[in-house]
Amino acid sequence: MERVPITKDGYEKLKSELAYLKSVERPQNIKAIEEARAHGDLSENAEFEAAKDRQGFIEMRISELEYKLANADIIDTDELPKDRVVFGCRVALENLDNSKSVKYQLVGPDESDIEQGRISVTSPLGKAILGKKTGDEIVLQAPGGKRCYELVEIL
User: Fold this and answer.
1) Quick one: which H or E segment has residue 59?
2) Which pLDDT belongs to residue 39?
3) Which domain does 123 fall in, by range?
4) CATH number of the domain encompassing residue 113
5) Long-range CB contacts (< 8 A, 24+ apart) of 127-133?
């Protein structure tokens, strides 16, 4: 069983989603199935089919979240070293090709959101910057070609 790193915030979000699915979505779906059954013939009942499909999605997501939470390795980002890039770090990078600066936080796969500045440690860039120190150059082979960055700061 593989442990998956996750921040405290990421763990809490997954926990909240699981609680919402169990306490709100599942009961609403059960009610929708009951109402659809009351309409009679189930073989041609679109509401019943839609509710059953939704039930399958909800139960699959609940199972997935329970698995992820059970295998989560919660990392306290307040206790991180600042001399090298590790999981949970926030970093400032400069793209050496176009001089644009970007800031990212290295997070687990379930927390990544590029628009929020969170990249997965399993992404090509995430893997490339792990263990690097301020001033190091990062060369990355991306789908669009080779990219070069400089690690400006570990925040």
Assistant:
1) helix 46-70
2) 76
3) 77-154
4) 3.10.50.30
5) 129/85, 129/91, 129/93, 130/85, 130/86, 130/87, 130/106, 131/84, 131/85, 131/86, 132/84, 132/85, 133/83, 133/84, 133/85
Say what the pTM is: 0.77
Same domain, yes or no: 39 and 90: no
Helix (H, G, I), strand (E, B), or coil: what is residue 99? coil
Q: How far apart are CA 102 and CA 119, in angstroms?
A: 12
Cα dihedral 140, 144, 149, 154 sign: negative
Q: What is the pLDDT of residue 53?
A: 93
Q: What is the mean pLDDT of each run of 10 residues along the chain (155 residues)?
A: 84 95 96 84 78 94 94 85 89 91 91 92 91 92 86 90
